[in-house]
Design a protein that fits this description.
By secondary structure, this protein is mostly helical. The chain has eight helices and no strands. The longest helix has 47 residues.
Length: 254
């Protein structure tokens, strides 16, 4: 059973139960009942719906912001690990050291100039980037240390390459949208209900009430836009940036 079918059944069941209880309760009302003595629940229900929707919006914003922060952190860890590979390779012979650094620069240049655009447009990484990182790994793992000093640097280099690969995998997982469709359904329906409830309070055409209604609707639209913008950590205006690569590899990213 799909999640959309479960959601539809749950919502329909909840509405049916509430309406059934309300109809049965109205049939039991006596002729001498005075409805003026019953508190009006419209304002209370409107307030509670607004509070619940505000909580949902807050959780959604926190979720997408956390996803964006995780995406940016994965970029920082990847760049830092590759920077460590370049630095620690200084103990190796010039030929090996230069080959490692050249392959790291080639990988970083590809990530910044080509792979980043693919992530923004399609939400995925490139096979070329994986191949270039594999070449860096081969440069490190295939070399056999000639002395103790090189041997002490070997395992840390291997660990840093593994850390870069792990950060790349994390970047791949964060490249696409993070909010499920069912959450967007709830956010949009909730926005329509919350804004629509303004009219149940018999809003008048005074400039003050119209201004407040307009500002409230604009606020809801802004928050939804904020969630949509953060939902793609690498693809929109307030997305994660490649600044760690640019800062640590200024020559490779030109």
């Amino acid at each position: 059973m799909s999640e959309w079918l479960v959601l539809s059944i749950a919502m329909a069941s909840a509405c049916a139960v509430v309406l059934t209880i309300a109809i049965l309760n109205n049939r039991r009302v006596r002729d001498d009942d005075d409805p003026s003595q019953t508190p009006d629940v419209i304002e209370y229900m409107t307030m509670m719906i607004g509070v619940v929707y505000a909580i949902v919006l807050g959780l959604a914003i926190a979720g997408v912001w956390e996803g964006r922060s995780a995406a940016q952190e994965s970029v920082r860890l990847e760049a830092q690990a590759l920077h460590e590979v370049q630095s620690r390779a200084s103990v190796y012979p010039a030929e090996v050291r230069d080959r490692i650094r050249a392959d790291v620069d080639a990988y970083v240049g590809h990530v910044v100039h080509h792979e980043w655009q693919v992530m923004s447009e399609r939400g995925e990484l490139t096979d070329r980037g994986a191949h270039l990182l594999d070449r860096v790994r081969a440069d490190v793992t295939d070399y056999r240390p000639k002395n103790d000093h090189e041997g002490q640097a070997y395992q840390p280099l291997v660990d840093q390459v593994a850390a870069a690969d792990d950060a790349r995998s994390s970047r791949s997982q964060n490249a696409g949208a993070t909010m499920p469709g069912v959450v967007w359904f709830g956010l949009i329906i909730g926005a329509l209900v919350t804004v629509g409830l303004i009219f149940t309070l018999q809003i008048r055409r005074t400039s003050r009430e119209l201004l407040l209604a307009g500002l409230f609707s604009a606020l809801i639209a802004f928050l939804l836009f904020l969630i949509w913008d953060f939902d793609s950590p690498f693809g929109r205006g307030l997305s994660a940036t490649a600044s760690p690569f640019l800062d640590l590899f200024p020559e490779a990213t030109r």
